Amino acid sequence: MSSKRKGVGLGAFSNRTLATSQYASHGNALRSEHLSSLETQLSVFQSLLHQFALTHAKDIKSNPTFRAEFARMCNAIGVDPLASSNGKKEGSIWAQMLGGSVNDFYFELAVRVVEVCRDTRAENGGLILVKEVREKVRKGRRIGGGMEVSDDDILHAVKSLKPLGSGFAVVTIGSKQMIRSIPKELNTDQSTVLEAIQVLGYVTVSMLQVNLHWERARAKTVINDLLADSLVWIDTQAEEPEYWSPTFIHETSN
User: Fold this and answer.
1) What's the whole-model pTM score?
2) Is 206 a residue whose pLDDT tops 90?
3) Could you tell me where the beta strands, DSSP code E, fall in 16-154?
């Protein structure tokens, strides 16, 4: 009796193993079919995107808003307009779809972004609002005048600098997007103080002590580091020294 039960048990185990193998095989087939379907859909979307780009090439090149919407369409289906195709030498999606002129546009814009950041670094310590860069690029001091660009264009231009190891990056402080043009990273305390400055445009050591519950030594250390990097300016005319954001001063003066 015991040997028969043992045989039935082994047979059941064998059947379960076979069923598990069949389920796994069926699951792999479904996943493969699903992946193939997604690849087909993506190929169709990319083909339609290509046709759209050719039809509206003039608007994409000349209209910042239209260009931003086109970039968002690309991102929605996983196409990076600034990335090379399959790592080959054909160039970016922009260049392939619209010709070199759009690629040249972003190269020229990146050069101007670098110039603006370099020219203002002594004033802001290498941290400048995206919209301030956009305004300076649109006004333009160079031969040929300014460029009609959007915030999205500026962000794409900064992104295009990344492969060069330039140290340029977009950072978010509070609710504001800023371009950092120095390789030095902000630590948590420095970011906290710069975010707090956005409320009134300035902070004092005592304000940091009361609102952030910091020791005076900690508040002074952070402020001194920001002063050394020209990320804040000091006003000694008040009863207690006030530390102002160059960005806030620029915004209120315009």
Assistant:
1) 0.58
2) yes
3) 127-129
